[in-house]
Amino acid sequence: MALNSAEARSLSGTEGVSSSTPRSAFADSFVLDFEKPVAELERKIAEMRVLAIKPEMKSLAVEIDRMEKKAARMRQEIYRKLSPWQKVQMARHPRRPYTLDYIQRICDSWLELHGDRGFADDHAIVAGMAEISGEKVMVIGHQKGRGTKDNLFRNFAMANPEGYRKSVRLMKLAAKFNRPIITFIDTPGAYPGLGAEERGQAEAIARSLYEMAMLPVPVLSVVIGEGGSGGALAISIADEIHMLEYSIYSVISPEGCASILYRSSAEAEVAADALKLTAPDLLELGIINGIIEEPLGGAHTDYELIASRLKQTITESLSRLKTIKTQKLLAERHRKYEKIGFWLEK
Questions:
Q1: Gap between the terminal Cα atoms of the chain
Q2: I want to staple 144 with a disulfide (CB 3.0 to 4.6 A). Which of 81, 157, 252, 272 is the partner?
């Protein structure tokens, strides 16, 4: 079934947002604190361009060119030195592309599947059969919403137990038909509500970890935004994990960590630095396998470019993983996670 672009946009809540939309179209709606100097300069440039249309103001062209070069230098300087807390803000950016945005752009076909066959369909996780560069795969990912109504529908990408049980059901289906599995990680964490706990949230996550560790097909995970707590880990037990440059991946959110360790969520910035949750930190620790470079200013500034880079990474990783025999694949997967946690005894 071919992917219908209009349907994908409707599902992801991205109507009217495309890679061709100029950066300034987003500037007024959402600007992070550290981006404000550049946003202000770009606003002035836009005003000067309007004035430069008049014949008597043609001399402004030289000044506009100078200011544009200054804005470019400022932008590069800002994004070259982002702190861990600033990267947390980038990972949560409301214009950042979500799972369905990537599915729309990298999949040649897409058939969404629903339900855990036990309780309900969880809209915080989307999953389905897809084809990428001729490879038949199963794609599973957290899905955030845009705007209040859509976020409530998606439960802010915080899955209930039925979301993880749906994932496990479809992973087993993928294994049955020998399809590699690709998961997109983008959640603050699993939903902590009373109903979720009553329906076995902890067991559902544990079951997902267990089943993913035993899947006889290649599993590739990509952290595209927030990778928070057990909600992220539940669908990221993989042979390879890649992260977008400004995404984060951690056992707890900075706010949660700050509340526990520093007795105040106001210390989230300090906690973000201590958690080592950025892509370079995790690559150095050997937890992830690679970093996908984002466009200058973040993934939300160019959907097509980041989707192209993501597709290339997926294609190369799957080509590599498919050559490994099942027993060796499982052994290396287990070894990967055994090496993450270790201690020394004297």
A1: 59
A2: 157
Type and span of the H or E element at 215:
none
The closest alpha carbon to 86, from 246, 286, 242, belongs to 246
Please answer whether residues 232 and 208 qualify as being in contact, where contact means their C-beta atoms are separated by less than 8 angstroms.
no
Cβ burial, residue 130 (10 Å; 0-12/13-18/19+): buried
Rg of the chain in Å (alpha carbons): 21
Report the range of poorest mean pLDDT among 46-60, 221-235, 260-274, 287-301.
46-60
Percent of the chain with pLDDT over 70: 90
Which residues face 184 on adjacent strands?
141, 222
For residue 29, name the pLDDT band (cuts at 50, 70, 90): low
Q: Within 10 A of 108 (CB to CB), how many other CB atoms are there?
A: 13
Q: Please tell me the pTM assigned to this model.
A: 0.86
What does 97-150 look like in DSSP terms, one character per residue? --HHHHHHHH-SEEEEE---SSS---TTEEEEEEEETTEEEEEEEE---SSHHH
Amino acid at 204: A
Number of Cβ within 10 Å of residue 100's Cβ equals 25
